[in-house]
Each structure stands twice: as structure tokens, then as C-alpha cells.
Write a structure and sequence with these properties.
By secondary structure, the protein is mostly helical. The chain is 79% helix and 0% strand. The chain is built from ten helices and no strands. The N and C termini lie far apart (57 Å).
Amino acid sequence: MQERRTNLARSMETRAALVAAARAVFIERGYAAAGTPEVVERAGLTRGALYHHFADKQALFDAVVRDEAEQVAAEISDSSVGAGTALAALMAGSRAYFRAMEREGRTRLLLVEGPAVLGPERMRAIDLETGGRELREGVRAVLGMDADAAEVEALADLVSAMFDRAVLAGACGADRAVYETVIDTLLAMIARREGEPDPAG
């Protein structure tokens, strides 16, 4: 039993090392120019180790994107702990998302190359299992736990697109603080429609 746990831990460490090395290579070179030989060299592993864990370069990229999305979701989840209202939690999650997306290369991985390489369906699936799940829970709390599921889904999609557009605008040089302020205003308007108290006042 101890040997099995040791083998599992070793396998997880190998996988994590490959994902970390791949992340660096994908950010430096972009997906198209990145090569698996450079990934294994940077990780200090063999091609056999790589293909034991991942079928090909796209599968490795998928793992990198998924890992990034999980980290963003964790930061969003942590940010809402102790929030007094559903709206306060949603706003805290919004700010946490923007902070999380400041990590070098993350915007490129999640908002530029992720959709281009993996396609919209796979990106949506990853989102629904990570940060999108957190957002939908926040939207449902603001609208009321008995809110129509289709309305929650539609509003969460629109809010998510709003967040992503703000991040991309910031990456292109726009003042993201302005976008964040406007988003807070829009979230407060949605909440007031539902009778949710505004945390600002």
C-alpha cells in the first residue's frame, strides 16, 4: 500500500513538472511554435514520461489551461468568504478574477490561445467546471435560489463575457479600473432589480 501511494505521488509530481514546464514554453513561444522536446528538457524528464501522461501536445496544452482555470477559480472562491451579501460576494469574486488574470501569460492562455487551440466547446466545459461554476453560484445567489435556471445561465454567460472583455481591454492598454468600476455598477443594478442590498450603501 505504501509503495502504491509512493508511485502515485511520483506520478503526480511528474505530471505537475510537465505542466509547469509546458506553461512556461507555451507562454514564451505560443502554442504553434512550442515543441514537446523543449518541454521535457525544461522539466528534466523524458519523452516517455510526457507521453505516459499526455497523448500529444494539445492534451498537454489542455492540462495547462485547465490548471490555470482551476487556480483562478480557487482565488475567486477564497475571495467571497465572509462577504455579507450575495452581491458583495459577486463583486469580491469579480475583483479576484481581475487580480488572478494579472499573472503573466494567463490572459494569453485562457482568453487568446485557449479558445483558438481547444475550441469554444472545450473551453466552455473547462469554464463550467472551474470559474464558471463559481460565477453561476454567485449569480444564482443574487437572483434568488429559486431563479429560473435558464436566466441564471444566460446572465452568467453575459457577465463572464463582460469580465473577459475587460481583461482583454486592459491587456491592450485600456484603463481596466474604469471597466471594473462600470462592472460593479452593472452588477449592483442587477442586484437592485432583485431586491438585493447594495454593499456600498
